[in-house]
Specification:
Aspartate Aminotransferase, domain 1, six-stranded antiparallel sheet, Iron chaperone
Length: 123
């Protein structure tokens, strides 16, 4: 299979149940960061706004959500019930997606990127 060039192509490659979950994540990010640009990066759906914002992807048993290490560090308590990596969170298919938490993380990343881009302009 060719690598997807757009998020729609990526989502279309999964079962209807997984497509629904991926769309929920996508819509949550779009609603929270309406100016963010969609892309495919590292073979995953990605959003960019003043730099990399968040990524997400489907796997065998979970949706992976990637808010970079800073997103995980800022929400350690909230994500403690999920399997995590340095910059990743795994939302298992057998539990409802925490869309409110995803929105909070995206909002945090938007603010973080705005601050970082402001610092770069001042230098």
């Amino acid at each position: 299979m060719d690598k997807p060039k757009h998020i729609n192509e990526y989502i279309a490659g999964f079962t209807p149940e997984v497509q629904k979950l991926l769309e929920q994540v996508r819509q949550t990010v779009q609603k929270t960061a309406p100016d963010a640009e969609e892309s495919i990066s590292y073979g995953m759906p990605a959003f960019k706004l003043n730099g990399n914002l968040v990524y997400f992807a489907a796997f065998t048993n979970h949706i992976g959500f990637y808010a970079l290490p800073s997103g995980n560090e800022a929400f350690q308590k909230e994500i403690s019930n999920y399997k995590t990596g340095k910059g990743s969170i795994q939302f298992p298919f057998d539990k409802p997606l925490p869309l409110d938490l995803i929105a909070k993380i995206v909002k945090f990343r938007v603010e973080e990127n705005i601050q970082k881009s402001g610092l770069k302009k001042k230098k």
